Amino acid sequence: MQAQYYRNLGYDVDWGNAIGRYDKIISEPENLPFLSLPHPDRILTRAKSYSSGNYKYLPGTHILSALGCSWGKCSFCIENGKPYEVRSVEDIISEIEECKALGFKSLFDDSATFPDNQWCYDFCKKVTNLKVNLGCNLRINSNVDFGLMKEAGFEMVLYGIESANQTTLNRIQKGVRIEEIIPTIKKASKAGLSPHICVIFGHPNETDKDAINTLKLVHYLLRKGFAKTAQASFYQVAGEASQESHRKYIKQIYNVCFSPEFWFNQIGSIRNIDDIKYLWLKIKKGLQR
User: Fold this and answer.
1) Which residues pair with 229 in a beta bridge?
2) How far apart are CA 200 and CA 279, in angstroms?
3) Cβ-contact 118, 86 below 8 angstroms
């Protein structure tokens, strides 16, 4: 979007790894006014060459409905304290129409938190007829209608659970209660969505028991088929000491593959050939861990 902003001003803009002499090379966002930025040129940026990822239907690309996070208070997150700016529904629909014209079949909205409440309702009502596969990031307490999202074309919804321990969630200012997590993921799954969950190991002050609680929660959600996929990362924040011994739990989330119940629910969710291809993609990625 920022590259296209400069093109619209008349600058000669190239994209990535070009050889030559330039007045300016930009490798980080320049904090230009987000709500006035134009749609990105996906031909200039060669978007289809980056379209593998976790998309079930290819080619896929990312969009950005909002800058920042609607919560914006998590102590470990780069969105902490940043303003939350949301584009209009009409502007996003226009960009999706452009993407469809270019042949993209999947779109993942990479806003730190997808806009909820009335914005989400209005968006779902307008995007339904475009017949495109959608995904987005949500908070456990995002106010959305999962059934309406499914009708609108949403499939993957990504949740940052971070930890299964309330003390840790309070410490990192997540703004979520433990008892909300399982019902929310279950409700999204029952509506036909495919929740992807993310956790973090190595939180300062967490014990082995705390880390294992998180591991057990991930395994439970995967075994039951409520979460379809999962990933784990390691807590590394400048000035804070991580629990280095907890790195071992990251790979252990994949031990769920030894559960017959997990495979029963994975296979039971297959509806078409695309589901089979996507399951095989997940298996290959799991084997690479």
Assistant:
1) 196
2) 24
3) no
How high is the pLDDT of residue 158?
98
> CA 25, CA 15: separation in Å to the nearest integer?
10
List, for residues 139-182, the tens digit of each pLDDT value.
999 999 999 999 999 999 999 999 999 999 999 999 999 999 99
Separation of alpha carbons 226 and 224, rounded Å? 5
Q: What is the number of alpha carbons within 13 Å of residue 21 lying toward its C-beta? A: 0
State in words which class domain 44-287 has.
Answer: alpha beta
> How distant, in Å, are the alpha carbons of 17, 114, 238 from that of 136?
29, 6, 28
Rg (CA), the chain: 20
Rounded to whole angstroms, the Cα distance separating 154 from 107 reads 9
Q: Among residues 190, 161, 195, which one has the least CA distance to residue 178?
A: 161
Predicted pLDDT at 28:
85
In the chain, where the domains are located: 44-287
Segment holding 101, helix H or strand E: helix 89-101
37 has a pLDDT exceeding 70: yes
Which tokens belong to 46?
């060669």
